[in-house]
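Course assignment 3, question 2. Fill in each field.
Student: A.L.
Task: Predict the tertiary structure for the chain below.
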Amino acid sequence: MAAPQKQRTTRDAKSLAKSQREISISEFFTKNRHLLGFDSPAKALLTTIKEAVDNSLDACEEAGITPRLLVEIRPDRAAVNLGLELESQSGSAVATATSKTSKNGRSSNGKTNGKGTGPGNKSEERYTVIIEDNGPGIVAAQIPKIFGKLLYGSKFHSLKQSRGQQGIGISAAGMYGQLTTGKPVTVYSRTGDDQPAHRYQIMLDLKKNQPTILTGEETIWEKDHGTRIEIVLTGSYKRGQHSVDNYLMQTSIANPHLHLSYTDPKGQTRVYENSTEDLPVEAKEIKPHPYGVELGILARMLKETKCRNLNSFMKEEFCRVGPKTAESLFEAAGLPARKNPKRLVQEDIQKLLEAIEVTKIPAPPTDCLSPIGEDLVMAGLTSGVEADFYTSVTRPAAVYRGNPFQIEVGIAFGGNLPGDELARVMRFANRVPLLYQASACAIHKAVLTSSWRNYGVQQSRGALPVAPMVILIHMASVWVPFTSESKEAVAHYPEIIKEMRLALQEAGRRLQRHINRRAREKDALKKQSYIQKYIPHIGEALQEILALTDGDREEVIATLTDTLERSRKL
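Answer field:
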């Protein structure tokens, strides 16, 4: 007979209210750091470098400086020495403990199986990540907030193309390092050769989402201007598709103006030279487009505007709204142009929004975008991929939710690329490589749903094409619609996928012409080899038929051979 269940105690609303408290953004992301891309040691190492490199490139380009970056991953020697010391002190006891894999999740060689982390494993996976740039530097008063406060940045409210968007990335990397090693973020910065350099050590107060400055002082630094950040964290360095090495290689392809020096944990240094000194075209900030505004946003804009009438509000707060467009809007909404925006009631706001939807408004300007460009996409692919054929396509600007964007596609085909494997897809958003969550990304879907067999490339249903091919797709936008805060996949907006497929179709047609031309050349060479084989026999037959001398026969053979060689060059 089952034991009777213990009766639960009842609690009233007042007692329940005592357990409720405000959650800071830093506390939230501490428990949900997977949302920011810190859900595994390998991914955390990559995300940290990615966020710092993105910030450095944005800063250099905004200041008009050709970027020169240094990236270094150093094993934390102090932790390694501590692990070795603990091992030597433990003696045979450690050997006995590490052999009991079933109990502590560690194999006989001292490495973890995912269930536990011993001293040896911790020492092997602790790194100091260093990123240094030659950018404009950071004003000393801003350093603590940038690196020690989540949701602090200059890009969120700015409608122009940039790598950073949310003001979370680099401070979250510092937070992850603090959580896993207890070490602060160290920042060096200098704003000019006539200005002092500053060195800060910063930790994040997780409850208040505020920086805690451990040290902040002037120091000696040899650079005239720039920023250097050092983060000690627990990570895992691996090679392959999702590695730091692959990310930096792809970054150099998408940013041909970047000079990058990279030193991996083994001390091997690779230098990615810039293929151009020219910076990307400067993206200019634009105002919101009416087609991208929603009811709540429109109500807030009306409440906060400094404009005194609806006419000036529509023309000054939005782009592409001129006098005629504004007049059409007010006529469709049934609202007077001279009405004070702050006095509009909910019904008036709804009418204005409906009028926006039915009024023809020109597309937003595209000078807020800075695409790579067809020539530089080709240059990047040529420097990073060995192939026989290259092509690139840049689509005209399009719009989703009032946000302008452009799609660029590059294809490398043939050469030393493996022909019996799935085509490799490189995904980029605002020049930043996307390495994770490919199956959730609109870019991957656009490649997957394109009919590659129409262009002479083998493809199974629902799969990527099988060919010696690399496909590069870049989305440039004032606001990339990522599926999460970790910025790893582009959301499936129909307008975006349509533009990607149109660009892929154009590049595919060029590829088809190349494949057909190669097939014709191969067929011609095959026929020419047959003719080459029978030329001596033709010479002998003509000698018998025409009673030619041996000299005449050799002359005929030489003439036929010369004619065949000339045909090969045509």
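Instructor remarks: Residues 518-569 form one domain. The chain has 18 helices and 16 strands.
Grade: pending
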